[in-house]
Amino acid sequence: ATVVITRAGATTLAELSIMKKPVIVVPNPLLTGGHQTKNAAMLAEKNAAIIVQEDALTTLPQVITTVVSDQKIQDELAANFAVFSNPAAPQEIAKLIIATALGNKDV
């Protein structure tokens, strides 16, 4: 994909950060505590994603066109978003699971 359009759930964003793609987020404002809105705002503050609010979805085609047609924007968004990735996360989680299963309380 040239650009990813997604909601702003933490797990989804964590998975996408590994892909090093430019991201446009459409946070769901109705979810508990507004967490998707907060996630999206944090990324936008770091110029790691572009936010399109649900009440402004008519602007989405123009935002997509802008990102797809501008390699500099794509590169900047992708690089800034990749900072949030942790490529070692699967191994770290596996170690925690194994240690817990073996009864290691010092995990």
Task: Report on this structure.
With about 110 residues, the protein is mainly alpha-helical. Helices cover about 50% and strands about 5% of the residues. The chain has helices at about 10-20, 35-45, 60-70, 70-80, 90-100, and strands at about 5, 25, 50. It has a three-stranded parallel β-sheet. The termini are far apart. The mean pLDDT is about 95.
Oligomeric state of the chains present here = single chain
Q: How would you sum up the global shape?
A: globular
Contiguous low-pLDDT stretches (5 residues minimum) are: none
> Which structural class fits the helix and strand makeup?
mainly alpha
Please give the count of helices.
5
Give the terminus-to-terminus CA distance.
Answer: 38 Å
Q: Which strands sit side by side, in order, in the main sheet?
A: 1-2-3
List the helices and strands and how they pair.
Layout (H helix, E strand, L loop, with lengths): L3 E3 L3 H10 L3 E3 L9 H11 L4 E2 L8 H9 L2 H12 L6 H13 L6
Parallel strand pairs: 1-2, 2-3
Q: Characteristics of this structure?
A:
3 strands; 3-stranded parallel sheet; 107 residues
Nutshell version of this structure?
The protein is mostly helical and 107 residues long. Helix content is 51%, strand content 7%. The mean pLDDT is 94.
